Amino acid sequence: MTHHPPHLIDSDEDGIRLDRWFKRHFPSLTHGELQKLLRTGQVRLDGKRAEASDRVATGQSVRVPPQLEDNSTGGTHPKSQRDARDLKKLILFEDADVLVLNKPAGLAVQGGTGLRESVDSMLDALADSKHGKPKLVHRLDRDTSGVLLIARTPLAATRLAEAFRARDTQKIYWGVTLGVAKPEKGQIETLLVKRGEIMVLATPADTDSKKAVSLYHVVEKVKDRAAFVELSPVTGRTHQLRVHMAHLGTPLLGDRLYGKPLPDSFPAEDIGKGLHLHASRLVIPHPRKGVIDVTAPLSAALKKTWTYFGFGL
Fold first, then answer.
1. Is 141 a catalytic residue?
2. Which CATH superfamily includes the segment(s) 170-309?
3. What's the CATH number of domain 78-165, 3.40.50.11810, 3.30.2350.10, 1.20.1250.20, 3.30.360.10?
């Protein structure tokens, strides 16, 4: 086995629990395996035995058993290699702090019941020894495509999350609606509450409702049949844009939860499959300096619909 020097705690990691540090640096190590290494003294923090709940400090050293280092660096599993390759095809922008992907429709951001793959699970393949696994800082619906921002460092994760909470961002979505919203430009403000799988407009009896605010305007239209709309969520509620467009009587094309069947006058072979909602552009302060301003191109499926209606790209 190769001799490996101890890991030094970075300033970005100051104060986190030791088990969280291991999750970042050795994501495939299970909690049970870590407990065994700690119990048998194979992990040392500044030369002393440690517990999972211990907090690490900048400059401290963590020594791990050689076999763990060798397993983590001596070649990756085929799935990890495939995940890394697939993610790199989606990259719109990257630097030392952030990663911006053009998420395809149909790929969940986080895993759930019955989901074997998600962006979050694939990010294990991009974990590094200094900062661990990149971290999600916002979400997109599984059926929505477009700009997805990911933090590569703990500092970036904290500052980007703060920017989203403070609404110090500009989020632009493109969609196609069945019918044309009236008026063609405006603000929608409702109270939403979750009912099973869907979000609905709240009633006075709902005490757990949350305010949802969206801006919209019709960019182009085809008579009263369909419209290309630009949408901007002011708040960040689940399915917010989908519910709001349906509330106007002009649901998004291909919306299986809030929409309606494609009219017979629309040739199905000329219309792209899936939900016609795309996170087109995101503008947000960079965690260190400047601004991140990224635009994601439409998928081939959505371009098909834009082309059919003659909407500009």
1. yes
2. Pseudouridine synthase (3.30.2350.10)
3. 3.30.2350.10
Contacts 24+ apart (CB under 8 A), 297-300: 297/102, 298/145, 298/174, 299/104, 299/105, 299/145, 299/272, 300/272
**Is 219 within 8 Å of 230 (Cβ atoms)?**
yes
Task: Name residue 191's beta-bridge partners.
Answer: 211
Q: Which CATH class is domain 7-73?
A: alpha beta
Q: How confident is the model at residue 29 (pLDDT cuts 50, 70, 90)?
A: confident
Task: Give the Cβ contact number of residue 88 at 10 Å.
Answer: 13
What amino acid occupies position 309? F
Can you say whether the dihedral through the CA atoms of 297, 298, 304, 307 is positive or negative? Answer: negative
Backbone torsions φ then ψ of 184, nearest 5 degrees:
-80, 0
Give the SS3 label for residue 158.
helix
Q: Is the pLDDT of residue 128 over 80?
A: no
- 83, 97, 124, 141: the catalytic one is 141
- What pLDDT shows up at residue 196? 86
Average pLDDT over residues 63-81: 64
Domain ranges of the chain: 7-73, 78-165, 170-309
Q: Model-level pTM?
A: 0.76
Q: What is the pLDDT of residues 233-283, one digit of tens each?
A: 999 899 999 999 999 999 999 999 999 888 888 888 999 999 999 999 999
Do 86 and 77 form a contact (C-beta atoms < 8 A)? no
The residue among 303, 282, 304, 302 whose CA lies nearest residue 293 is 282
With a CB cutoff of 8 Å and minimum separation 6, the contacts of 13 are 21, 24, 56, 58, 154
Q: Is 153 exposed, middle or buried, given 0-12, 13-18 or 19+ CB atoms closer than 10 A?
A: buried
